[in-house]
Amino acid sequence: MTEPADVVVVSPHPDDAEFGVAGTVARWTQQAKQVVYVVCTNGNKGSSDPDMKPDVLAQIRQNEQKAAAEILGVREVVFLGNPDQGLEDTPEFRKQIVRMIRLYRPQTVVTADPYRRYIWHRDHRIAGQVTIDAVFPYARDHLAYPDLLEEGLQPHKVKEMLFWASENINYVSNITDTFDLKLQALRCHKSQVQTMKVADLENWLRQRCSDLAEGEDFDLAEAFHREEISW
Predict the structure, then answer these.
(1) What's the confidence (pLDDT) of residue 198?
(2) Contact 68, 26 (CB under 8 A)
(3) d(CA 156, CA 139)
C-alpha cells in the first residue's frame, strides 16, 4: 500500500515546480512533510537547439527533475509521460491526476494557476484546470471513474489548493531560509536555464522573490492563490 503524502505538486513540465514552489517545498520537507511531484509532460519540446532530439531531451529533463527534487527533499517524482505541448482536457488525462490524488491522499495540492490571462503556456493552463477538476469533484466522488475503486483507490477529499503564477495572490510563503535550496534546484535544470538569457540567475531570482515579499515581515517569498476546500 502506498504511503500517503502531505502534498502533491502537479507540474506541467520538468522545471515548472522549481520556478513556482521549490522554496516552499523545501520548507515543508524540513518540517518532515511528505511531498510528491507529479510531472505531467516529458518536456520533449523545451529546447531551442536545432540539433536536439525529442527523446534525448526528454531523458535529460527527467534527470534534471530528479536531481532538483533530491535537493529539495521530495519523496518521489512520478512522470506521467505525456508529450510536451500535448496536454488536453480529456477524461484520460483527468483520470491520471485523479489516480495520483487517490493514491497519495494529500491534504494540499499545488499546481499552475490556469486563469492567468493572455500569454500563458497552454500546458500550464490545461494542467491547472484539469487538476482543479480532478480534486473537485472527481477524486471525491466514488461514482467517478468506478474502475479506480477496483484498483483499491478510494475517494479522497483534498483540503487546500495552491496555485503558482497567479494574478490573484492571497497567500505568501516565507522562503528566506530556503531560497538557496530553490536556487540550487533551479540550477539543476540546465537545459532550461541556459535558454533564459539571464546574466545572473541568482540576482534575477532573488529580485523576483524579494518583490513577492513586499509588505511582509520577511525578505523573500513565493506567492500563490490559495483555496481552502470545505466540502
Answers:
(1) 87
(2) no
(3) 6
